[in-house]
Design a protein that fits this description.
Rossmann fold, single chain, Helicase, Ruva Protein, domain 3, 46% helix, five-stranded parallel beta sheet, globular
């Protein structure tokens, strides 16, 4: 159970936090002084701390420095009753995550605490590099593989992790770019600082600038308070910019300035903020073609390309597939309380023949779903998703090329004509809609609001289609601008986190 430490000498505030979080699976620890807070951090190692700026035995800033000495990775959110937030901003410069104004806004409190818990999870869960699936880490994740392409990835991580240079991670969706970014962070000299992620494709363009750089009060309609952006929050840490190829030209210019000068201004502000942040970027786009078409700034491309790590698609990793199946099978057994000891040869043959357009992420989802379906000690072919059993890997879903997509549709139609179906139009339309919606949801990292915008339909229409087509939604993130950010897995059994 995650834990939250609240430090305030007002009993009503402590009671409020207990009421807000006790029923949502978050343990609330309370302290009325800096001394008591230090004792609790040393003894219980909370995941997040919310700290008042005015305490009976010391200032909040003094308490903050002492708590950070006990746990340098502890995300700290300040509370202040003062309309003048200069002291809170000073706390940001020292490494605090953000601040809350009293009287407290419930929604803002939940949002910041959820964000802090996610940051804590990222910074605590190490990514191990291992050539076999023999051992599943008790905590964290692993990059598994022994093919020559993955050996190059391991060497690259070791070579550049400790260097204070920008790294560009390239590869298809689902190949593990976030894991590489986290491995670089954990093996760097900034491992005691924060690690944060921003998905440029999942956040609407109008909000992305504020998400990255923050904004001043009154900067735009609805900006009722100063907001601290990710660059400011990530001072002395590492910021992972995923899907940077989807960033607008205006934002590309601002990112370039931060990389060059480590300076920026909040939206609507004139104050220059200095941020010591290491940027790791990732994309599945062809940046060279985008530069040639003037869709991506050449100077930003060269700046990001200080060091490149290329991740291979799963279809090119040979016997790594067997290692990954064993690894994900062991993880699924542990997480789901199952005892599936192996994969039947016929099932493994189907897994090897499938082209895996969703790469390692899709394989993980398929293994997990199959383990849930399995009733005995062996995973049989019948328990695999239909698309894997049929080998139907459409070009629409995985970028396997127009020719492969054409072959798939020709086979799809011929099989049904031979079978004498009487609803071919409906079947083909349903298949096309399933693939299209699944692809868009992967593109938006499961954000339904953004997916509906891209598709040109309302969110209600999208949700109706999800139900009609049987596209499952697995909730993975709580918080942000929507009640939940979610992941799609369609008839192909693939999913995206």
């Amino acid at each position: 159970m995650p834990s939250l430490l609240v430090v305030d000498d007002e009993p009503t505030v402590l009671h409020l936090f207990r009421r807000m979080f006790d029923k949502v699976g978050i343990e609330v620890l309370t302290a009325a002084s800096g001394a008591e807070a230090r004792r609790l951090v040393a003894e219980t190692h909370p995941d997040v701390a919310v700290l008042d700026l005015v305490l009976p035995d010391q200032t909040g800033l003094e308490a903050f420095r002492q708590l950070k000495q006990l746990d340098s990775r502890l995300p700290v959110i300040f509370m202040t009753a003062s309309g003048n937030s200069d002291t809170a901003i000073e706390a940001m410069k020292l490494g605090a995550l953000d601040y809350l104004l009293k009287p407290l806004d419930f929604a803002e409190v939940r949002k910041l605490v959820d964000q802090a818990l996610e940051i804590r999870r990222w910074t605590q869960q190490r990514v191990t590099l291992q050539e076999s699936a023999a051992a599943v880490p008790a905590e964290g994740d692993a990059l598994v593989g022994r093919c020559s392409a993955m050996q190059l990835v391991y060497k690259a991580i070791g070579r550049v992790a400790s260097q204070n240079v920008t790294v560009l991670i390239r590869g298809e969706s689902g190949t593990g770019k976030e894991l590489v970014a986290r491995a670089l962070y954990h093996h760097s000299h900034r491992a005691s600082g924060p690690f944060m992620e921003v998905n440029s494709a999942a956040i609407p363009e109008a909000l992305l600038e504020s998400e990255l750089f923050g904004h001043e009060r009154g900067a735009f309609t609805g900006a009722d308070r100063r907001r601290i952006g990710k660059f400011e929050q990530c001072h002395r840490g590492t910021l992972f910019l995923d899907e940077i190829g989807d960033m607008s030209p205006a934002l590309q210019s601002k990112i370039l300035r931060v990389l060059q000068e480590q300076r920026f201004e909040r939206v609507g502000g004139n104050e220059t903020i200095v941020a010591d942040v290491r940027v790791i970027a990732a994309t599945n786009r062809d940046l060279e073609k985008m530069v040639a078409r003037h869709q991506f700034r050449a100077d930003l491309y060269y700046r990001l390309n200080g060091y490149t790590i290329q991740l291979p698609p799963l279809r090119e990793r040979g016997d790594d597939l067997l290692l990954l199946v064993d690894y994900f099978l062991a993880r699924a057994n542990r997480d789901l309380g199952k005892e599936v000891r192996g994969v039947f040869p016929a099932a493994m043959d189907l897994l090897r023949r499938y082209s895996w357009p969703g790469n390692v992420r899709e394989l993980q989802s398929v293994v997990r779903q199959s383990v849930l379906q399995t009733t005995g000690p062996v995973l049989l072919a019948d328990f695999l998703p239909e698309i894997v059993r049929g080998g139907l890997s459409s070009g629409l879903l995985g970028g396997v090329g127009e020719d492969a997509g054409g072959e798939y549709w020709e086979r799809f139609i011929n099989e049904r004509l031979t079978g004498g179906v009487e609803d071919l139009y409906d079947q083909a339309l349903n298949r096309m809609e399933t693939e299209l919606i699944s692809r868009v949801l992967r593109r938006t990292s499961g954000n339904q609001l953004e997916a509906a915008r891209i598709l040109g339909v309302t969110r209600t229409t999208l949700r109706t289609k999800l139900r009609q087509l049987g596209i499952a939604i697995d909730r993975i993130v709580v918080g942000g601008d929507e009640p939940a950010q979610e992941t799609a897995s369609g008839a192909d059994g693939s999913s995206s986190r």
